[in-house]
Amino acid sequence: MSSLPTPAQPTPAQPTPAPVPAAPVAEAAPRSPWRSLRHRSMRWWSVANFVSNAGTWMQLTVQNLLVLQITGSAAATGLSMSVQAAPALLMSVLGGAAVDRWPRKLTAAVSQALLGAIAFTTAVLVALDRLDLTSLMVLAAVTGIVATVDNPACALLGNDLVPAEDVPSAIGVGALVFNAGRLAGAALAGVTVGFLGTSAAYFANGFSFLFVTAVIPFLRPAPGAVRRVAQGGRRPQRDMSVREGLTFFARRPRLLALAGVTGVSAVFGRNYGLTLAVLVTGPLAGGAGAFGTVSTVLAVGGIIGAVLGARLRRPSVRLVGALAAAGALLQVVAGLSPSLAVLLVLVLPMAVVESVSDTAGTAVLQTDPPAHLRGRVLGVWSSIGTVWSLGGPPALGLLMELAGPRGALVSGGLIIAGAIGAGHLLRARQTTTPVVLRTGEDDVAGRAALETAA
Questions:
Q1: Of 143, 266, 276, 282, which has fewest CB within 10 angstroms of its CB?
Q2: pTM over 0.90
């Protein structure tokens, strides 16, 4: 997503005292979490994404029930989800390469239109009672393939609308839009299905994609973003291959460190829908209502964290690691909670820390690579993330079987914090120590021949 315009500055050739009083305002503005919404195109893009997210969550809310209704099999429901996720594992790097090679607005518009066509096709088949397991799986697979292009295209299109320093604001606003769309879509799904039937949710989602498609041609980058994008566009296009993106990612220590922090956190923590559900309904002797309360607090914390994360200007991998370690320690304490009340007190900061960390990590990921490589880097990241999302829950489930929910939370938190701490110590030990140089007859102490690499 995107952010705010750079304030106009006086030309260096004509310094005047007039701009001085305005300096505090110019300094304060970049700290606002809503600064990306100063841009007209960003406001339209946020509205379009809200509509799209609401439509998508309307469909997702009824999709699993529809699969159960058609097949009567819970295994088929899981299979449909896996079929849709599989392309992200196998084809995300190709989708990212397409985003780098083709005009971004055109790519996003076409992919949104294709997703709309898939939603309309599903709606018609449901309305005519012609949707069987085979056609459902084919539609799920095609959706997953299109999403490998659509996801990086839409993410980077939003970032292209604003200067790089405002990207964290855009990502934070995007997180808020996502959560608001999720709540609205889930609420509208019940009303829509109750009055108009299941196919109506798919029709609504199709129209939401068409709305985004219609908005995209009218988006215009902010002045600072125009210069940044133009500079990236003038880069010689010698190599637009998938290999270039893989090579860049593999040789970029910041991205490898970010992948490590995010990966260990995804496997041993963050799956609170699983670990906290078992903790609340098991050792804490709560019911579905109690876990619903915990889920609500998690959602509130996520919104607060998104607002705080949007205030960041230059997020770093070090910040992501520190927040992940703090969240892991909170997870350890949560695993030892003697009561539901204590758990609720801990859940809020856990969600806040996780949300700020996610915003910072996403900002690093989407701004660190050069402009001509960002699609492929996001493609590599999507493939890695799919591995975590598919492998994390089973691994965590096995850990809970062996250690129980409390043991899984405690040991998982300690593993995360320990891994991040070990990585920090390893990085510190790689620092080159100063070398004393001898000049003439005297030793010049304190002159470092080598410095630590950035």
A1: 282
A2: no
